[in-house]
Amino acid sequence: MADPEDYPEHRLGLQRDNGFLEVRFERHDRTRPVHVEHRVPCRMDFPRQPPGEPLLGVFVTTSGGVAGGDVLRVSVEACHGATATVTSQAAEKVYPSLGAPSRLSVELRVEGGAALEWLPQETILFDNARLERRVDLDVAPGGSLLALDLVVFGRLARGERFASGALHDVWRVRRGGRLTWADALSLSGDIAAQLASPAGFGGATAAGLVLLVADDAAAWVDEARARLSRGSCRAGVTLVGGALVARALGAEPAHVRRDLTDLVSWLRAARSDLPARMPRFWSI
C-alpha cells in the first residue's frame, strides 16, 4: 500500500475529509436511536415516517460526494427488539482522484430479535475514481438484515463511463461472529475492457446486490429467482452460508435499480408485513 504522503493530494496540501458516523438503535417502548455520534461530513437525520413503517435513519454526506483521499466510516447497530431502516439522502458520488483512493468502511451489527434494513441509494463512480470499500455485516441468530447495494459505472447522464481508476470492494458476512460469506471485487487497469468483456460484466453499466441474512433466508430463494427472472436484467439468486444473495447486471442503471428495489419491496412486505415500497427518499 502506498504511503499517503506520496499521493498528489497530500503534496498539494488539498483538504480531505476524515468523517464517521456511529448509530445504535434500542427498543424502549419503541425503537429509538440511543447513541448517535458523527464527524463531518457524515450525519444522520430521523424524519417522520408514514404509519406502518419502522424508524428511519437517513445518512447524509454534507460534502456532496467523496474525493480521493477521503476516509469515511459508518457503524450501525440494532440491539435486541429494535426495528429500523437506514437509507441515504441521495446517490453517493465518488469523484475523480489525483491518485489517492477514497476509503469507505461500513459495519452493520444486528442482535438476536432485531431487524435492520440497509437501503442506501446507488454509488456512482466517476471516470478516474478510486474507491476502496469494505462492508462488514454481523447478524446474530434470530436477527434479520436486509441490505441493498447498487453501483453505477460512470456519470452516464453526461456520456461519461468509468473507464479508468480503481474499485476494490470487499464484503464479509458473519453469523454470530462466525464468517459465513466473503466476496471481493477488484477493477483496475483497462476497466472499460473488463466491463465490456463477455467474461466480465458483459457491457453492463450498473451492478446490484441484495442480501438477506436471516434464519428464514432459504424460504425466499425460489420466489426471489422467479421474480428476478421476469425482470430486464441478467440476474441470479443463491443461498450461501444461510444468506440469500441476489445479483443483477444491466445495460441501464434504471433497470437494475427497478428490478432490485422491486425485490426488496416484495421481501420486506412478505417477511415483515411492511409496506411493499422503498423509503420515500428513493423517489425524491
TrEMBL record:
<keyword id="KW-0143">Chaperone</keyword>
<protein>
    <submittedName>
        <fullName>Uncharacterized protein</fullName>
    </submittedName>
</protein>
<dbReference type="Pfam" id="PF01774">
    <property type="entry name" value="UreD"/>
</dbReference>
<dbReference type="GO" id="GO:0016151">
    <property type="term" value="F:nickel cation binding"/>
</dbReference>
<dbReference type="InterPro" id="IPR002669">
    <property type="entry name" value="UreD"/>
</dbReference>
<comment type="similarity">
    <text>Belongs to the UreD family.</text>
</comment>
